[in-house]
Design a protein that fits this description.
The protein is of the alpha/beta class. 36% of the residues lie in helices and 18% in strands. α4 (89-102) crosses α12. The structure holds adenosine-5'-diphosphate (ADP), magnesium ion (MG) and zinc ion (ZN).
């Protein structure tokens, strides 16, 4: 069967054409279904406007508006970003969220990493923990504690080991749904955990939540710092604001003698923050307890005991909270540099 809307034959041969979101495109629909039979249709039940309008230039299209005023019932919105994967974005998102919740704030987490959703696992959630409100059609976030809820693809899928194979428009729709199509209620903090890089998901978040503040995560090595520079350049082009930068995996406290081991070096994040004139939010050391707690599904910030990373996450959350309440963010787009 030939479908006209986006040139299905070409889509079948080359993958979906850029911008093809046509439901009638058989080839593209097939490509999506193949990798995605498991996602409940609830994710798309009330489709919101998903395509980014205008030319594919982030600066223009993001400033173009077109969405309703965002999330008025949420006091502070944070966007945990980095250039790279594996630097600790999800760990930072989850631990800062848990520390804020323990301090009494109503907190929500959106896991915008559709391909590598780790928030649900870090919070020990079972598959299917996200529900749907039949009356409103909105998603009901999973609960970690009474004032900490979250949405993650891994809490929606019945089989969390199944890969999500989606192209841009569908990813944007899912991210939008995870942010705006959820019964969050009133929140003090909404924390969006992002995938690595600067792709469709990031653009969608910035467009849907223009007042979101980026918390940049880096490790001390140059390879991570270089990616953070690119992420900062992306934020500047896209008109994003930044709260500050944190250095994770910053030194290791020797379990035997307590000495400071500089496994991945140390201090590169602080220097980068100075170079770009953005606030440095603090360092989190490497700590085996962080790995254990991740595997257990219990964030260090909410676990018993005391340790270097737990103290650092608590200090980071306090710094983030103080800066949010003071309204201290750097408007990158307004900068000359
Ligand atoms: N400070 C830390 N100390 C020890 N392990 C850490 C620390 N931060 C993160 N990790 C571990 O590193 C891995 C990657 O972290 P993660 O938060 O998933 O990164 P990202 O979200 O950037 O991909 C995980 O196994 C996590 O437990
Ligand atoms: Mg992650
Ligand atoms: Zn030692």
């Amino acid at each position: 069967m030939k479908q006209a809307s986006c040139g299905a034959e070409q889509c079948a041969a080359d993958g979906r054409k850029p911008g093809c979101a046509a439901a009638s495109c058989a080839a593209c629909a097939k490509a999506d279904e193949d990798g995605f039979a498991q996602v409940p249709s609830a994710v798309f039940r009330r489709p919101e406007r998903t395509e980014l309008r205008g030319p594919e230039r982030p600066g223009r299209e993001l400033r173009g508006g077109g969405f309703s005023p965002p999330l008025q019932a949420v006091a502070h919105k944070l966007f945990v970003m980095s250039g790279k994967g594996g630097v600790g974005k999800s760990s930072v998102a989850v631990n800062v969220a848990a520390a804020l919740a323990l301090a009494g704030y109503r907190t929500g987490i959106v896991d915008a990493d559709l391909h590598g959703p780790s928030v649900a696992g870090l919070l020990g959630s079972r598959p299917g923990a996200v529900g749907v409100d039949e009356a409103s059609g909105k998603l009901l976030p999973a609960e970690f504690m009474p004032n900490l809820h979250f949405i993650s693809m891994a809490a929606l899928l019945q089989d969390r080991d199944r890969a999500v194979i989606w192209r841009g428009p569908k990813k944007s729709a899912a991210v939008l749904r995870f942010i705006k199509g959820v019964e969050w209620g009133a929140l003090d903090y909404l924390i969006v955990d992002s995938p690595p890089g600067t792709g469709d998901e990031h653009l969608t978040v910035l467009k849907a939540v223009p007042d979101i503040l980026a918390v940049m995560v880096t490790t001390p090595q140059e390879i991570s710092l270089a990616d953070v520079r690119r992420a900062l350049s992306f934020l500047k082009t896209a008109g994003g604001k930044i709260l500050g930068l944190t250095e994770n995996m910053s030194g290791l406290s020797c379990p035997h003698c307590g000495g400071d081991i500089r496994l991945f070096k140390k201090g590169g994040g602080r220097l980068l923050a100075e170079e770009y004139g953005i606030p440095f939010l603090g360092e989190i050391p490497l700590d085996p307890a962080a790995v254990l707690s991740a595997d257990l599904g219990l964030p260090l910030a909410a676990a018993d005991g005391d340790g270097a990373a737990k103290r650092a996450f608590a200090a980071l959350a306090a710094e983030v909270d103080a800066r949010c309440r003071a309204g201290a963010a750097v408007d990158f787009a307004a900068r000359r540099q």
